[in-house]
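Sequence in, structure out. Go.
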Amino acid sequence: MEKNEEQMNGTQNQSKENGPKKDASKKDASNKGRKASEKYNLQELSAFCLQVALLLEAAVPLDEGLSIMAEDAGSQWEKDMLLFMAEGVELGDPFFQVLEQTGAFPAYVVRMARLGQSTGTLDQMMLSLSEYYEKEHFLVRSIKNALTYPIIMVFMLLAVLFVLFVQVMPIFEDVYEQLGAQLSPVASGAIRFGGIFSGAALAVGAVLLFICGVVWALTRMGKRFSFLEQLTAWVKRRSRIALAVANRRFTSVLALTLRSGLELEKGLELASELAENPAAEEKIQLCRELLEEGQSYYDALKATGLFSGFHIQMIKTGNRSGHLDRIMEDISRDYEQQADEAIDNVIARFEPTMVAVLAVAVGLVLLSVMLPLAGVLSTIG
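Output:
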């Protein structure tokens, strides 16, 4: 009996010792599988942060809340990831560490979650992150729409011109030959040139779209292209839309970090990582250097040149009143509106340009057709 009890106790102790190891090994295996899977997009990030914020506000344990979220996950990889996170939190791992282990979240989310846990404001931090990524989602969607619409319009214009020059006009030429008339050499040359040009443009556009698709697929797989990065950096330095987007991100991150009690210097470091604009990054770095030299927040931010006179005045008022975070939120909304207006202006200018080009092309085609027809009618009369 004593031997049996000793064996049972030994088995129980061994199972207790092996239990955490099994859990840890299971967790590591799940983590490895998760890192090779997909990642959250901006809209999913916003929804995830909002759900976590609501769970924390309702005082629901995170492990229980994450398990509840896993029940209605939209895909298997998301369900596995949420269960992995619930298991990690249940085992006592910090929430930010679990976020980092999944590999599905940006470094910014991980750092802000760590800051929220250290300051006891994780619920507010996650709610702010939800709002931030929701705005990012709508901004990115607006930029995609602004790029997609002109591309579709150009292809439609080229297709219409190609059909006119290659299919329609030869029919009129044959009819005129049967009537004993012919198009003028200038009109015939213009028609041939238009057919060649529109056809070549369509072919080049199709090739470029194919190349862009291949490059996009390779970048999704982690491939980097130096020429593409240089081109993107050049556009971001000179584009009004890109500068407005960088300023919006900059002020939004500053507002979030200041509201959480973080020092402005640390907020500037995070903002520099998220701006994704070389011109903005250089100015943010200048601001950090000026702060290290002992200048005030107002003077350092003013020297960057990122803000207009009105915004600088608002920053000065917010700094003196102790509400710099609220001021940064207001400025962020202003820059968001500027980015939207810049995108709308691009589309508004592009539409009449395309209509004018199409009207001129169709008008020239009609003239080249009607003038010989008028000569034939006058001869018959």
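Check: Residues 1-36 have pLDDT under 50 and may be disordered. The CA atoms of residues 232 and 277 lie 9 Å apart.
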